[in-house]
C-alpha cells in the first residue's frame, strides 16, 4: 500500500514507544519500515495511542472510513448535498424564468417636460435656467415624478429656442455653465430623479463650426450637409418645403450652392449619408452619456434622411400651381421623411446607449419624436423589432386630437389607435401637450383638465406631463411685438409662444418664476393669481392635489402600473375602462365623462363588477367616498371617477378582445410576489 508523505500528529507515539511523530518522521526512513508499521497496526490497539484523537494518520483514517457505518452516512450526505444543489439551481432557474421583468424607472412614474426657458429663472434675466430647475426639484418629488425631460440647453444663437445648436458640447450661458449642469445632474441623482436631454440630430445651427467649414468647401466638411447646385437668383432645386413654410433650400453665396433645411434656413440639415457625420453624432451622444445623463428625447427623427435623387415630392393637390406650393401640407413627403436608413441610425445610437446601460440601475432611456399623423405604422417602427431595439417608446401624439371632439367614444377611439397598433409586449405612453402644441386646458377647456389628467395617469403606460399641466395652466395671448417663436413670425397662428409662458409657481411677482427682476421672456398668464402651485398645494380639491394623488396611486398599485387595461363602455359622454391584475383582488374601474352633459352610466351588464361600488377619487371632491350602484353611475360633464373594488372574478379572461397588457403577470398573494403566467 503506497501511503506517501503525510503530516503526523505531533502527539502520536510510535508502536514501539519511540519519540513524537515530529521527531520520528524521517523522509530517509526505509520504505519497508513505514509500510510494515502501517500494516501491522491493530486498529483497536491504536485507539489507545491517539493523543489527541484528531490528526489520525492517513492510513488509519482510510481504514476506518471504509467501514460501512461511516461510509454509508457519508455517501447519503454526499448525495443529499448533490440533490440539494440541483434543487437550488432548478429553483433559481424557475424563479428567474417565471419572474416578470421589473419595471424600469421610465415606466414607474410620469415623465415631466421642463421647458427650460420658462420653468424657473434663478438669476433674474427673464429666462429660466439650470439652477432654476435645481431650486425646484422638490416639486417633482412632491408629485411622485422620477423622470424629467429638459428642453435644449446647448450653446445656440436661439433662432429656434435652442433647437438650433451651435455647439453640442457646450451649455448656453443663458442657462448656466457646465458646472451648473453637472451639479443639477448630481442633485437629481441624489434625489433619485433621472434627467432626459433633448438631442437634435437632424440639423445644426448655421453658426456651427461644421457648417462654416462646409460652406467654405473644407475637404473634410464639405459633405457634412446636403448641398446641391442651384440657381442663385431662383434657388429652388426642387419643390421641397420647410416645416416652417417656404422652400427648404437656401442659396449660400460663399459656396455658390444651395443647402437643405427642413426647418429654418438657420438650421441646415446634416447629411447622414456621410459616415463622418454619423460618427460625430454618436460621439456627442457618448459625451453626454459619460456625463451621466439618463436618456435622450430624439427630436424630429423622421427628417433625418432625405432621398439622394432630390426628385420633386408629389403635390397633395396636383392642380395647384407648383410655384404656390409653400407649406408642408401641400406635399406628400415621400422623399424628405421616413427614408430608408433612418432606423439604422437610431439603432446605432440605441446600441451606444446600451453600452452605458449595463450597470445596475443605470438604464439609459430613448424616446423619439415623429409626427406621423394617420400613418401610425410609421410611428410604431420606432419601437424597433423583437431582435433589434430602438426607442423605449415613440411619443404618442394621438391624444393631442382630443379637443376636436370631447366625447367618450372619441377618446376611446384615440386610445385605441395606439393600443391596437402597438407591437405586442411594448409599453404605451400618453401626452396631451408639449412646447410645440397649444395647451390642453385652453384647447379642450378648463372643464376637462382634471378628467384629462386622470385619463393620462390611469391608462396603461407612461404619461408625459408638460410643465403646468399639473395645475391646469392655459395659453397666453401674445401680441406681434411680443412674438419670439420663428414659426409665429412666418405665420401668427402657428406661433408656439402661447404655450411657453413662465411657470406659475405662486401669486407673487412674476408668478414666482423669477423674484429678482420684473423681466420675463414671455408674459406671465394673468390667471397666475389663482392658478399657481402654491395656492393649489393648500387646496385639497385642486388640479394639483388630484395629480399628486393619482401619481402616487399609480406608483403604488400594481394593477394601475402593469395590470390589464380593458374597455368597459364608451358613449357620447363617458369612456370607461378597468385595470386589473390576475391574482390580485383589488381592481380599479374608471368612469370618465368627456361629454358636454352629465350622464348616468349603467354597467349592470358587466357581470364581473360587484353591484355596489365606492368612489375612491372623483375630480369633484364632494363625491370622494360615495357609494354607488353599478347600474347607475352618475357623472357631470368633465367629471371622472376612480372606483376601487374588490373581486375574485377577473374581466380579461372573458373579454380578451377588449383587453391589453404589456407583459402578463400574475400576483401570488400567499408569497406577495409576481410571476409570469
Ligand atoms: C423639434 C422641436 C421643435 C423644433 C424642431 C426643429 O421638433 O420639438 O420645437 O422647432 O424640432 O428643431
Ligand atoms: Mg434631415
UniProtKB/TrEMBL annotation:
The transmembrane residues are: 76-98
Record keyword Plastid present: no
- Recorded topology in the membrane: Single-pass type II membrane protein
The scientific name of the source species is: Zoarces viviparus (Viviparous eelpout)
User: Which Gene Ontology CC terms are recorded?
Assistant: apical plasma membrane
Domain of life, source organism: Eukaryota
Return the annotated region ranges for Disordered: 1-36, 480-503
Q: Which UniProt keywords apply?
A: Amino-acid transport, Cell membrane, Disulfide bond, Glycoprotein, Membrane, Phosphoprotein, Signal-anchor, Transmembrane, Transmembrane helix, Transport
Checking PANTHER family in the record gives:
ALPHA-AMYLASE FAMILY MEMBER (PTHR10357), NEUTRAL AND BASIC AMINO ACID TRANSPORT PROTEIN RBAT (PTHR10357:SF179)
Q: Where is the composition biased (Basic and acidic residues)?
A: 25-36
Q: What is this protein called?
A: Amino acid transporter heavy chain SLC3A1
Q: Where in the cell is it found?
A: Apical cell membrane
Pfam families named among the record's database cross-references: Alpha-amylase (PF00128)
| UniProt domain Glycosyl hydrolase family 13 catalytic: residue ranges | 113-500
Describe its assembly. Answer: Disulfide-linked heterodimer composed of the catalytic light subunit SLC7A9 and the heavy subunit SLC3A1. The heterodimer is the minimal functional unit. Assembles in non-covalently linked heterotetramers (dimers of heterodimers) and higher order oligomers; the oligomerization is mediated by SLC3A1 likely to prevent degradation in the endoplasmic reticulum and facilitate heteromer trafficking to the plasma membrane. Disulfide-linked heterodimer composed of the catalytic light subunit SLC7A13 and the heavy subunit SLC3A1.
Q: Name one GO biological process term.
A: carbohydrate metabolic process
- Report biased composition (Polar residues) as residue ranges: 492-503
Kindly give the CDD domains that the UniProt entry links to this protein. Answer: AmyAc_SLC3A1
Amino acid at each position: 500500500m503506497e501511503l506517501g508523505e503525510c503530516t503526523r500528529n505531533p502527539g502520536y507515539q510510535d508502536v514501539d514507544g519511540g519519540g513524537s511523530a515530529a521527531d520520528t518522521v524521517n523522509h530517509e526512513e526505509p520504505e519497508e519500515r513505514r509500510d510494515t508499521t502501517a500494516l501491522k497496526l491493530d486498529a483497536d490497539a491504536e485507539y489507545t495511542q491517539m493523543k489527541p484523537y484528531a490528526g489520525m494518520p492517513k492510513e488509519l483514517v482510510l481504514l476506518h472510513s471504509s467501514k460501512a457505518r461511516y461510509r454509508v452516512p457519508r455517501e447519503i450526505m454526499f448525495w443529499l448535498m448533490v440533490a440539494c444543489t440541483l434543487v437550488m439551481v432548478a429553483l433559481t432557474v424557475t424563479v428567474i424564468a417565471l419572474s416578470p421583468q421589473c419595471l424600469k424607472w421610465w415606466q414607474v412614474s410620469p415623465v415631466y417636460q421642463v421647458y427650460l426657458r420658462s420653468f424657473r429663472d434663478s438669476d433674474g434675466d427673464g429666462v429660466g435656467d439650470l439652477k432654476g430647475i435645481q431650486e425646484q426639484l422638490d416639486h417633482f418629488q412632491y408629485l411622485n415624478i422620477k423622470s424629467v425631460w429638459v428642453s435644449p440647453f446647448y450653446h445656440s444663437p436661439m433662432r429656434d429656442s435652442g433647437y438650433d445648436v451651435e455647439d453640442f458640447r457646450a451649455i448656453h450661458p443663458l442657462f448656466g455653465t457646465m458646472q451648473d449642469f453637472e451639479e443639477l445632474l448630481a442633485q437629481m441623482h441624489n434625489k433619485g430623479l433621472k434627467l432626459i436631454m433633448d438631442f437634435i440630430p437632424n440639423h445644426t445651427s448655421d453658426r456651427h463650426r461644421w457648417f462654416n467649414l462646409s460652406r467654405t468647401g473644407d475637404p473634410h466638411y464639405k459633405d457634412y450637409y446636403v448641398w446641391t447646385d442651384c440657381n442663385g437668383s431662383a434657388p429652388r432645386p426642387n419643390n421641397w418645403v420647410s416645416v416652417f413654410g417656404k422652400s427648404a433650400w437656401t442659396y449660400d453665396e460663399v459656396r455658390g450652392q444651395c443647402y437643405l433645411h427642413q426647418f429654418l434656413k438657420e438650421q441646415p440639415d446634416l447629411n447622414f449619408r456621410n459616415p463622418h457625420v454619423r460618427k460625430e453624432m454618436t460621439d456627442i451622444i457618448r459625451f453626454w452619456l459619460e456625463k451621466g445623463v439618463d436618456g435622450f428625447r430624439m427630436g424630429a427623427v423622421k427628417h433625418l434622411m432625405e432621398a439622394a435623387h432630390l426628385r420633386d415630392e408629389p403635390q397633395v393637390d396636383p392642380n395647384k400651381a407648383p410655384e404656390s406650393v409653400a407649406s408642408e401640407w401641400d406635399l406628400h413627403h415621400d422623399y424628405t421623411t421616413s427614408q430608408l436608413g433612418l432606423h439604422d441610425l437610431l439603432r446605432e445610437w440605441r446600441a451606444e446607449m446600451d453600452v452605458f446601460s449595463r450597470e445596475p440601475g443605470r438604464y439609459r432611456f430613448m424616446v423619439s419624436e415623429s409626427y406621423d399623423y394617420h400613418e401610425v405604422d410609421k410611428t410604431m417602427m420606432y419601437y424597433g423589432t423583437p431582435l433589434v431595439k430602438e426607442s423605449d417608446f415613440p411619443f404618442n401624439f394621438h391624444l393631442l386630437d382630443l379637443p376636436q371632439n370631447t366625447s367618450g367614444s372619441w377618446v376611446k377611439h384615440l386610445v385605441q389607435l395606439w393600443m391596437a397598433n402597438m407591437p405586442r409586449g411594448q409599453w404605451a405612453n400618453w401626452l396631451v401637450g408639449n412646447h410645440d402644441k397649444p395647451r390642453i386646458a385652453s384647447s379642450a377647456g378648463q372643464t376637462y383638465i382634471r378628467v384629462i389628467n386622470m385619463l393620462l395617469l390611469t391608462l396603461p403606460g407612461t404619461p408625459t406631463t408638460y410643465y403646468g399641466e399639473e395645475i391646469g395652466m392655459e395659453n397666453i395671448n401674445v401680441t406681434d411685438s411680443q412674438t419670439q417663436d420663428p414659426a409665429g413670425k412666418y405665420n401668427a397662428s402657428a406661433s408656439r409662444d402661447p404655450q411657453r409662458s413662465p411657470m406659475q409657481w405662486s401669486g407673487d411677482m412674476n408668478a414666482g418664476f423669477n423674484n429678482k427682476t420684473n423681466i420675463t421672456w414671455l408674459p406671465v398668464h394673468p390667471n397666475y393669481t389663482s392658478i399657481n402651485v402654491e395656492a393649489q398645494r393648500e387646496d385639497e380639491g385642486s388640479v394639483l392635489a388630484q395629480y399628486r394623488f393619482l401619481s402616487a396611486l399609480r406608483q403604488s398599485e400594481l394593477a394601475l402600473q402593469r395590470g390589464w387595461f380593458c374597455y368597459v363602455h364608451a358613449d357620447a359622454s363617458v369612456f370607461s375602462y378597468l385595470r386589473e391584475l390576475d391574482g390580485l383582488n383589488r381592481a380599479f374601474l374608471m368612469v370618465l365623462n368627456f361629454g358636454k352633459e352629465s350622464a348616468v352610466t349603467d354597467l349592470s351588464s358587466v357581470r364581473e363588477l360587484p353591484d355596489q361600488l365606492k368612489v375612491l377619487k372623483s375630480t369633484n371632491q364632494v363625491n370622494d367616498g360615495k357609494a354607488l350602484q353599478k347600474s347607475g353611475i352618475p357623472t357631470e360633464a368633465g367629471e371622472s371617477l376612480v372606483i376601487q373594488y374588490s373581486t375574485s372574478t377577473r374581466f380579461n379572461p372573458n373579454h380578451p378582445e377588449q383587453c391589453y397588457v404589456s407583459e402578463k403577470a400574475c400576483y401570488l398573494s400567499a408569497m406577495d410576489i409576481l410571476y409570469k403566467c
